[in-house]
Write a structure and sequence with these properties.
With about 270 residues, this protein is an alpha/beta fold. The protein is built from ten helices and eight strands.
C-alpha cells in the first residue's frame, strides 16, 4: 500500500504546474512558448498600468506568497517590491531575467543618461531572457527538462526568423528616425540602426520649451508618425502631431504578444 501511495504522490508531482510570477505581460508570453501547460503565471503589472510606479494589490501579494519563482526583468517598481515579495515568501526564487544583457542609457528625453529598462523589445534580448527563464524552470522542475529545452529551441528559431524579417523590411528605409512619446524602443532602434526621438519620460509632460525643441528636431528629421502608448497622457503627442501634420499611432511596450507587437511596430516604420 505504501508503495502505491508513493507512486501516486510522484505521479501527481510530475503533472503539477509550477506557480510562478512575472512583472509584465510579455514575460507571460515567453512562458507560454517555453512552458506551455507547465506553469501557472501571475502577472503583476497588468495592461494599462505603468511598471515605473506600480504597487501590487493585496490579492497579488497572496498569489505571490504561493509562487516558487519570481521572474524579474529590471523594471523600476521591482527595486522597492522584490525585497517585500521575498520577505513574505522566504522560499521564493527570484530570477533576474535581464542577466547577461548589456543595458544602454536612454539617449533623449527627460531621462537621458539613465539605463533603459525596456530590454524585451528586441529579438536578440528576448533570446537571453527566454534562456534565463528556461534555466530557472529546469532548476525547480527537472522532470520536464526535455520539454523546456525543446520549447526554448523552437522559440529561439522563431526569434531568429523575426530578426531576419525585420532586417529585410527595414533595409531600404531612408528615414531611420522615429518620434515616440515614451522612449521604450531604444534596444530595437539600436539593433536595427534606427534613432528614437523621445518626447517624455516617466509620464511627465514636457515643458513648453522642451515641446518646441522636440517639434524643431522632428521637423529637421522629417518624421512621419509619432508613437504614443495608452499608459501615458496623449496631450503633448497630439499637439506635436497637429503641429507637424503627422499620424499618431498607439503602441504599448507591455502588450503580451511581444512578437506580434514588434512585428506591427516594424510594419508601421516600413510604411505598411
Amino acid at each position: 500500500m505504501k508503495k502505491y501511495i508513493i507512486l501516486l504522490i510522484l505521479t501527481i508531482s510530475a503533472f503539477a504546474k509550477v506557480n510562478v510570477a512575472v512583472s509584465i505581460p510579455p514575460q507571460e508570453y515567453i512562458l507560454e512558448q517555453i512552458a506551455p501547460n507547465l506553469v501557472d503565471t501571475e502577472v503583476v503589472v497588468k495592461p494599462g498600468n505603468s511598471p515605473h510606479t506600480y504597487e501590487p494589490k493585496p490579492s497579488q501579494m497572496i498569489a505571490l506568497s504561493k509562487a516558487k519563482i519570481y521572474f524579474a526583468i529590471g523594471v523600476e517598481f521591482e527595486n522597492s517590491w522584490l525585497p517585500k515579495f521575498k520577505a513574505q515568501n522566504s522560499n521564493l526564487l527570484i530570477v533576474h531575467t535581464d542577466k547577461n544583457i548589456k543595458k544602454y542609457p536612454i539617449t533623449s528625453g527627460q531621462e537621458a543618461g539613465e539605463l533603459d529598462p525596456h530590454i524585451w523589445l528586441s529579438p536578440k534580448n528576448l533570446k537571453v531572457i527566454a534562456k534565463n527563464m528556461a534555466n530557472a524552470l529546469i532548476k525547480v522542475d527537472s522532470n520536464h527538462t526535455k520539454e523546456y529545452k525543446d520549447n526554448l529551441n523552437q522559440f529561439i528559431t522563431k526569434l531568429d526568423k523575426l530578426d531576419k524579417k525585420i532586417k529585410d523590411k527595414l533595409s531600404k528605409l531612408k528615414n531611420r528616425n522615429f518620434l515616440i512619446f515614451h522612449p521604450s524602443w531604444g534596444y530595437f532602434a539600436r539593433d536595427y540602426n534606427l534613432k528614437q526621438i523621445a518626447v517624455e519620460i516617466k509620464g511627465k509632460e514636457p515643458s513648453a520649451r522642451e515641446l518646441i525643441s522636440v517639434i524643431k528636431l522632428a521637423k529637421k528629421t522629417a518624421v512621419k508618425v509619432i508613437f504614443t502608448q495608452p499608459e501615458f497622457s496623449q496631450k503633448s503627442a497630439k499637439l506635436i502631431a497637429n503641429e507637424l501634420d503627422i499620424k499618431v499611432v498607439k503602441v504599448s511596450p507591455l502588450k503580451k504578444d511581444v512578437i506580434q507587437n514588434i512585428t506591427n511596430f516594424t510594419n508601421i516604420l516600413a510604411g505598411e
